[in-house]
Design brief:
189 residues; mainly beta; Immunoglobulin-like; 4-stranded antiparallel sheet
């Protein structure tokens, strides 16, 4: 008479070897030496947190004094741009947020300027692509030192009445000089 295996015993007989073989895979096996904790193929699955990445000392970018990295301001009258007839506007662009980053580059300062806004369809407009001209102006004292032209571009989907636009202008180099630096953005027109 043939004896049947007890189900719990069968599970133990199958799971124990499987667990041991997985443990060998995770730990890298005896022939490969000791692998760092959490570095195996299944790291994080069995409650092990992945090992933190080693800290590599990187050369920090030189900090720029706050006086050399002013806030970006929206030019007076430059926050909005309308296309079309005043009574039947096709598209209206509006700047919502601006940001900047500065790094020293020798005796100059290099700016990265970010602009975020919204394009809205007006009563005379329709979905699709739209664009609006914009300028970034950097002044030192009352002298313009950099002017950068760019374009806000969007594609308004057929089932939407608006779309976000984002512009990132990098590499705006301001030469050294005397006087306070100011950065303004705005639509042309």
């Amino acid at each position: 008479m043939r004896k049947r295996w007890n189900e719990p015993l069968r599970a133990v007989c199958v799971l124990v070897p499987l667990t041991l073989s997985l443990t060998a895979c995770i730990s890298g096996g005896a022939s490969q030496g000791q692998a760092p904790a959490g570095s195996g193929m299944f790291s994080g699955i069995f409650g092990q947190a992945p090992a933190p990445a080693p800290v590599v000392a990187a050369a920090a970018a030189p900090s720029v004094p706050e006086a050399e990295c002013p806030q970006v301001e929206i030019r007076e009258g430059g926050a909005n741009f309308r296309q079309g007839d005043p009574k039947a506007v096709k598209i209206q662009f509006t700047i919502k947020n601006v940001a900047r980053e500065c790094v020293a580059a020798g005796d100059s300062v290099v700016f990265k300027v970010g602009i975020e806004g919204l394009a809205l369809i007006g009563s005379g407009g329709k979905p699709g692509p739209a664009s609006a001209p914009m300028t970034i102006i950097v002044t030192r004292g009352n002298k313009t030192v950099v002017t950068r032209a760019t374009t806000a571009k969007v594609v308004i989907p057929p089932d939407e009445g608006q779309a976000l636009f984002r512009i990132i202008e990098d590499g705006i180099k301001v030469p050294p000089g005397v006087g306070d630096v100011a950065v303004t953005v705005g639509f042309k027109g």
